[in-house]
Structure formats: structure tokens, C-alpha cells
Design brief:
The chain is mainly α. It is 72% helix and 0% strand.
Length: 177
């Protein structure tokens, strides 16, 4: 199947309407919109005019866009600060805004998220790695790291693993009849 050729945006009205259509679907950062306009052959001067008009009418706001990304991150609950930073960069949020948003997320909040994730995952890992707890800890560490949690959070989650592991009675202690 062939891709439909993209309509070139040569007039202000076409470019502005195209940008509004994109914004109607979801919030975009100014750099995202600039890239989308450039893909459609919109020259730099026209991009600047369209983005200025959108900013003036408060349709484009990088801080608001970043706020939506942070809100979505908080709702998911199973990702760390590194994941949040990656999502903000993926949406092409300016570095100063990314820094401000990450400063608004405390290490305590991230640690609590990691511990909560560990409480959900540890029972599965204990069941899977009954005889080899070291492998269970390694699996938990990989899961947390792949979700963007930092080292401090990994240690906090491993402490949860140890606590939950101690709660499960050993078969040797139960005795036999």
C-alpha cells in the first residue's frame, strides 16, 4: 500500500488550519508543531507567523503541554523520573521547562512509586524464583530500571522485596509429620 502524499502548506490559512487540526487531537509543544509544519513544506517565516498567532490565542503553551505529560505520568504510577524526562523530551518540551517539571517531582514521590510497584510485583517474583531469591531481586531491579526509576528507588524497592520475602515462611521451618 502506498502512502498518501502529504498536502503542502503554502498559505498562512492552510498552515494555521493544519496546526489547529493537530491541536484539536492533542496538545503539542511549539517545537512539535514547527516540525509538523516543516514536514508539509511550510517555510520558516510562515511557521513563525502561525506559531505566534497560536501562542497569542493561548492554543500553544509549552508549560501547559508539559503539565499534561506530568499529569499522565502521575496517573500511571509505575514509572520513574527518568521515564518522565524521556517523555518530556520526546514531546520536544524546551529544556528549561523540563528541568522545572522534574524539580516539581520529589525523590520521595518517586521512591513511594517504586515501593508501590515492588509491592505489586514481588509476590509474582517470589513465586517464580522460590529457590533463587537473587534472581528475583535482579528481575525486580531490571523492571524498575526499564521503567525509569533511579538507583535510590531501586534500593528502596529491594528493601520491600526483602521484607516480603521474610514474611513467607520457609518450608524447612514448617516441619513434617
Amino acid at each position: 500500500m502506498w502512502a498518501k502524499p502529504k498536502k503542502m502548506l503554502l498559505t498562512y490559512a492552510d498552515a494555521y488550519n493544519f496546526a489547529l487540526d493537530r491541536l484539536a487531537m492533542r496538545d503539542h509543544s511549539s517545537l512539535e508543531l514547527r516540525d509538523k509544519l516543516a514536514e508539509r513544506g511550510c517555510d520558516k517565516e510562515l511557521q513563525d507567523r502561525v506559531l505566534a498567532a497560536l501562542r497569542e490565542r493561548h492554543f500553544v503553551d509549552d508549560v501547559r503541554c508539559a503539565g499534561y505529560v506530568v499529569d499522565a505520568w502521575r496517573r500511571k504510577g509505575i514509572y520513574g523520573r527518568n521515564y518522565l524526562r524521556l517523555m518530556l523530551e520526546k514531546r520536544q518540551i524546551p529544556a528549561s521547562v523540563v528541568k522545572d517539571m522534574l524539580d516539581g517531582v520529589s525523590e520521595e514521590e518517586e521512591r513511594e512509586r517504586a515501593e508501590e510497584f515492588a509491592r505489586k510485583e514481588v509476590p509474582k517474583l517470589l513465586k517464580k524464583y522460590q529457590t533463587e531469591p537473587r534472581k528475583g531481586k535482579a528481575a525486580l531491579s531490571r523492571k524498575l530500571a526499564s521503567r525509569g526509576f533511579t538507583g535510590v528507588c531501586l534500593y528502596a524497592a529491594l528493601a520491600v522485596y526483602d521484607e516480603m520475602e521474610e514474611e513467607i515462611p520457609n518450608k524447612e521451618e514448617e516441619g513434617s509429620f
